[in-house]
Structure formats: structure tokens, C-alpha cells
Amino acid sequence: MTTTERTYVLPETTKPTTIEAVSFRDGMIVTADDLDAAMRYPTSLLLTVFQAFFGCGVVCGLALRPKQSDRGGWVLCVDRGVAIDGRGYPIELCAPVELDLSPEACACEPPPDRVCIAVRRITSDEAPHDACTCDLDEPRFDCRRVRDYVMVKAFTEPELDALGDRVCRRRPGEETSACTALTACSACGCGESWILLGCVALDKDRGIVDQPDTSGRRWVKPVEAVCAGPGDLVGTVTTMANELSKLTERVAALEKRAPEKG
After folding, report:
1. What confidence tens digit (pLDDT) does each residue in 217-237 have?
2. Which CATH number fits domain 35-176+187-218: 2.60.120.10, 2.40.40.20, 3.30.460.10, 2.60.520.10?
């Protein structure tokens, strides 16, 4: 028996990931950036898994409702809830907030016909705050602490479209099966990462009309898969049942063809 030696080499390649660790040794001078990188390493591991498993979208809550139960009024309430942004960070709204969508008293233009509400995570470095003075004892003046904030913002539809991929939302007519929702990789979120909660229609005289439209809201991948719709789930179960029936028939045919042992 002769063997043929392979004369070619199959290709291989390497690419760096987004995860970076630090290596300390005795006698080294450690900077604040080094300590920050050391802290980010375990966080990066978790965020990578969260972003891959959950994707971006709403986890629970964050419902939109007009403050006035009857039609009319300009105040829109956003209930408490949790979402995950495009980088895997949680967006936690601990208490309901109110948005006053009424036009300015001196505004010459009428309000837009439709307004969309989105949220994103920011830190205390980005949020408006008092001047940072480390000499003061109050926690809000402590320069060594960075707190997460939730920004809730109203957009016109053109403003929202201008954000492009920086908005996590469901496109009109988009239909995703349960398996696709779970196995597809979400786009890597860089920079701002907004989560669309829904839109409301406005009347220049009455304010909010009709109920909020949340059809553009995207949920995290497990919720999308479970709530994909009964038709999708029934179709999946039916397909599995058909495949099982075919497999049973093949096994029965093989058993008939197998020679009997004397």
C-alpha cells in the first residue's frame, strides 16, 4: 500500500478580537488606563456573550402610554423596564418617565404628524451634571465613580432614519423565523446604540391620537423566537413531525430487509 504525501498547505489566518487583557509584573508602574483595561477584560467577556445570545432589543417593560386615558393630551409615559443595546450593555429604566410632546408656545411650525421614542445608555461622563469637584463629599461630586443613565428621546421619523444602523428596530415587513432569530448574529454596535420603543401620532390641536404604535420595536432574540407567532411554531412542529414519520418508515423498511438469524 502506497501513501501519497500532500505537497500543498491548506490556508490559515488569524484576526484579533475585541477582547484585550493586561499583563502586570512586579516593579511595573501601573497607570489608571492599565487598571481600567484590567477591569474591562471580564466585562468584555460577558458583553460578548450577552450581545451574541440576546442581540439588541427590549427585554421587558418599557411600554408606551398616553398620560390621559382618554384621547388627547401631549404627555407620553414610558414605563419602567430593561433593554440590551448593540454592545451588550443593559439599559435599565427604574421608574416611569414622562415626555411632554407639546410644541413650544412661540413655535411657528406645527408639531410633526408622528414622533418616535427611543432610549440609549449613557454614563455620567456624558450626562449633564454639576461641575466635578473632588473636594466635595457628596457622592454626585465623586470623580472616581461613573454611573449609568438612560436617555429617553423623541425623534421625528426623518431624524430616526438618519441614525441608520445605530437604531435597533424592526423594519416594516420584516419576518423572522424562530430558528433564524436565535442563530443569526446581530450587527456589532459601535458608538451610539438606540433602542426604538415605538411611535405616536400627533394632532396639532388635540395632541396624542390613537394608541402608540410598537410594531417597530425589536425584542431580544429569545423573546423574538418565542413570540415569533403561532403559525411559525406550528410550522416548526409540523415539520419535525413529518421528518420523524419519514425516519420511522425508513427504520421499518431496514428491519424488513435485515436477514433473520437462524
Report:
1. 999 999 988 886 554 555 555
2. 2.60.520.10
